[in-house]
Amino acid sequence: MPPVPAAPDGRNPESLPPEASVPESAPPGTPEGIVAYLTAPALELLVHGVGGATPEEMLGDPRTTRVTGDSTAAVFRRTEDVDAEDRPRDYRDKPIPEAYVWSNLTSGNGIRALWLLLLPFMVVNLAHWMRPTTEGKARTVRLYGVLVRLVALTLTLLLVAAACEVALDLTAWQCAGSTSCSGKKSWLGFLSTAHGGWWSQPGRRIALAALVPVALTALLWYLSHRTWSAYESQQPLPNAEESSAGPALGRPGFWYGRRLVARLRAAHTAAGFLTVAGALTVATARYDRTADNTLLDVCGWALQGALLLGGAVVVWVVCRRGRTESRFDAALDKALVTLLPAASLVGLALAVLYAGWSRPAWTSTGRLDGGDRSFGLLTLAQLLLVLALAVVAVLLNRRTPVARTVMRGLGGPAVAMLACALGGVMSGGVAQRVADWLDGPGTPGMATGPDVPALGPPVLLTWQASVIPPILLVLLLVALHYGIRTWRVRSALRPRVEADYPKENPDPVRTGRIALARAAADLTDHAPRMVAVLSGVSLLLGGIALLGAFLYDEVPGRAAKGTPSPVEAVAHTSQALGSWLIGFGVLLLVTWGRRAYRDPKARRTIGILWDVGTFWPRAAHPFAPPCYAERAVPDLTWRMATWTERTQGRLVISGHSQGSVLSAAAVWQLPQRTRRRVALLTYGAPLERLYGRWFPAYFGPSCLRGLHDEVDCWRNLWRHTDPIGGPVRVVPDEDRHPVDRDALLDPLAYGRTPDHPLPAPILGHSDYQADPAFAAERDKLLARLPEPAVPRQNTPKD
What we know:
- The chain has 798 residues and is mainly α.
- Among the domains are: 40-105 and 628-784, Rossmann fold (3-Layer(aba) Sandwich), CATH 3.40.50; 202-361, no CATH class.
- The protein has helices at 35-38, 55-59, 119-129, 138-175, 179-182, 202-209, 211-230, 258-290, 294-320, 334-356, 371-399, 411-439, 459-466, 468-500, 508-521, 527-551, 566-598, 600-613, 629-647, 658-669, 672-675, 687-694, 696-699, 701-710, 772-784, and strands spanning 42-47, 64-69, 74-78, 96-101, 650-656, 678-683, 713-717.
- A 7-stranded mixed beta sheet has the order 2-3-4-1-5-6-7, with helices on both faces.
- Strand 2 (64-69) and strand 3 (74-78) form a beta hairpin.
């Protein structure tokens, strides 16, 4: 008898369990043990979406077993399906269900809610990925990335500068230097000038206070390094050769940004330390120029020159290198990553020694030198960088315009402007809130008596806090406009809803609820207009605040002698209201964050932006929340490739919501031989509706069309009531199946029926598996996948 070919997993076919008879299609003489090879199984790999899910919910069974993975992300099966590959006869007519659970990549304990305080960093990182679609113009594309990274660097400087303002200026310089203020704060007693202790000298006070911004910078470095080790260090499937062609998400180095994140982390950490050193040095050197001490004056100039040189090196490192996506780059710039933060720490130590040198005649009056100028230059730099980014985006979009791209390619600059506005409002509001607390009943920036000095932050921060109420007013007007619009659309949709259920008796209440769900879901398509309005207002008010601080070196609405004018009264009210609103906003942000990580329902509500933002690798800001896709995409790719290679079976990856984006990204990473055995089923998918419009260079029409051409079969399910998912709008060739199915009815039944004796719920974005169309489309996809080839017997030679 001729030898029997080996099974694809390397096992001897004679040792396979003979659990079924030989299929009729098998060649004569095939042993019964090879039946497992001839009837290769089919696998359905389920990937959940926003809000997470448990394996028990996804598999519909309380008994589940982890088959691979760890406590962070893992693949689960029902306990009875763990050995399914060894029992192929039991799964001849159905796929083996598996669930990939990645909830813990974006959720955890309540402490992780503090990531929400770094929201500006995440938002500016999104701007990098919103680059318009373009062909060619590599230098312009590179310039776009450089500008976004520079905007991100200014946000780090702004955060650390705000910490310096609170700790060095407001607390150590102004409050501790004022008897009226330090006398009310017992914890400041050892710094108070009234005690005349060793720490009472201004330089030593601010040197001690520098521990706060230094600790903040060190904490950001630690969080970035820890998450970098857990996320960015996951190696992708080693299957693709070096290539810059094809879709970006399919390139071998796309999901491995270890080198860039390490460089940026070193640069931003050094920038934070240099900012603190600069705050200490500038204020001290200013005094030394007026004092009769040539040596200290020379030291001050030399130290300032060294800090400027360090800042130039940081800018060079940020601009020098972008992402490496065309190849798997495992190298690290170890010398740079180590020496740059270390050198900045040396500069910081020298600045602390320089500021702490004894200067008995030095007294602290007014505000700390350098604060007004620093915040003004940072704000001006941000406005100019955003405008330059807008020009570059327009140039890129004009070369390859895409019809549905948001704001005609200006989505990235608009989002970058929002990141700067968030940073400015948070820094200005926090400084104003701390000044309110330190000043007690007084108004920050205003003297309460002839012998009591004014205590307050730089004027620009006060102006920025003052623009918070106008921004909130604009938001309220926008929300009111779209609320009225939704109500009108609801009325217009009533006839269409009743037409979708022609055999039902119309019920005005039921029809109204369904129409309202559809109208509310339609609001997602108007998000670009909301962002455009908000970013435009932020740009305008930011320019007004900068101009007001430059022309009027005083607190907005500071009352002159006598009765204040109406304009002054409005400005003063806006300043006070903005100060309280930012404190309330920070508290609300932390509260929502903790609830989102503890309560799955709340996570579904506010998790959309969060999951979109943290899907993308850290390409612009290293202190942004970590990218979960750099762990999830390699997980899915490895699982699909190894399972199909081992079993030669068919696989359908079934992704819901954000899981559909992860599924598409994983399929792009598969080698061609594996992709032929994989089908893609997406439902509630934001692939075109959100990602295609906001990130056209990565999910634009050409990218989705290319995915359809590369995947053997793909089907997408969606509903009119879904506020997140929608059609992918891929126009197939005449000989190929369309991707989008007609919109699923939601609810499944209008009224009570024998199949639905109780009122059917409006599902919206959830529970697509409840629709019979889901199982039908999945089975069709599996049927369209090619069956594994039956091994031929070797015939002996005559």
